[in-house]
């Protein structure tokens, strides 16, 4: 007998969706990830949580609002009682970005007066202290995220990142929840009246405290990174609201070789590529691609010539190279060409085990593969699970936010997939 899902999540990119799903599973909830609005009509759901993956992080505000509200209506129709808007733990949104507008639209649709703003993910070094967002020991604005090719992060103050995005009438309605406030276990009158409540959080205990505080104030829209997900899942599970079943869906072993695709230009991904130097690697040259000197066939022929357990195809560049490429070829034009090439590499290679690095690249790959939904399996590292498609053709994927994972990530991914394959 099908059970209505309890929690509905709208994620603004595909890696963020799988990140969120992995922590919900870790917290004890069964979870299905649905990929895009076009896939919603195909689903027969029997899980505690639905994570609906959109690709709205860098589209226009109008597109983001339309898609996010459609996603919300779908989640509401499924019977969800709690809602979460998932965006990046490093915010990844400029002054003209979509986080504020989507929060405002969801608050209006739910007839709620307050949103929790909690981007923190301490397990991956993303913390908030005195309202400032840190990446490990660096302020966000001093971290490699300052050079993000699509959403350069030039400010670390969460309030100032959010303020220009929200409706002018609410730009002063931002309050801060400090560590001391968390320890007091209650909101003061000013915090209770705030429209946007930014949470300090530097460790796992703080996430647990925030979740418990939210449980006392149910009339809130939850927004932020995936850090809160595990603890919200634990609370809902402890209350007996979730299915009594094995929550982590089994993934079927697929013993074929692994195709790694890296489109992210983050420092973390570039270090992971360098560390995986024992694997055969193909570097996508954007200039040759733009001139028509590099074709999909060249990459496919190279892949099929390799006799290795895994191969790596990447377009990642250092910031100075990215800047030169964008000046020469145009930012949007070359980004779309590279995304399409990498996505078609995933499709035409016929690989059954695929690891993708980069949010935009992941969205392009999943869309090109036309995968409607995933079961969530074991994680390679915090926030990056191995997932398996629910469609007729079984495909295992891991979608990694560019900045996630240590330098050994690609090698760890291959090792875990090989372990699963050995069980076949």
SSE arrangement:
Layout: E1 7-11, H1 14-26, E2 31-35, E3 49-53, H2 61-77, E4 82-86, H3 99-110, E5 115-118, E6 126-129, E7 132-135, E8 138-139, H4 158-162, E9 174-177, H5 179-184, H6 189-193, E10 196-199, H7 204-216, E11 221-224, H8 227-238, E12 258-262, H9 267-275, E13 281-283, H10 286-291, H11 296-305, E14 310-314, H12 319-329, H13 331-348, E15 353-357, H14 359-369, E16 373-381, E17 384-389, E18 396-400, H15 409-422
Parallel strand pairs: 1-3, 1-4, 2-3, 4-11, 5-10, 5-11, 9-10, 12-14, 12-15, 13-14, 15-18
Antiparallel strand pairs: 2-16, 6-7, 7-8, 16-17, 17-18
Helix pairs in contact: 1-8, 2-3, 7-8, 12-13, 13-14
Structure commentary:
Strand 6 and strand 7 (132-135) form a beta hairpin. The strands form two sheets. The chain has a 15-stranded mixed β-sheet, with helices on both faces. The chain has helices spanning 14-26, 61-77, 99-110, 158-162, 179-184, 189-193, 204-216, 227-238, 267-275, 286-291, 296-305, 319-329, 331-348, 359-369, 409-422, and strands at 7-11, 31-35, 49-53, 82-86, 115-118, 126-129, 132-135, 138-139, 174-177, 196-199, 221-224, 258-262, 281-283, 310-314, 353-357, 373-381, 384-389, 396-400. It is α/β, with parallel strands linked by helices. It has two domains: 7-238, Rossmann fold, CATH 3.40.50; 258-422, Four-carbon acid sugar kinase, nucleotide binding domain (Molybdenum Cofactor Biosythetic Enzyme, Chain A, 3-Layer(aba) Sandwich). It is built from 15 helices and 18 strands. Helix content is 38%, strand content 20%. The model has no long low-confidence stretch (mean pLDDT 91).
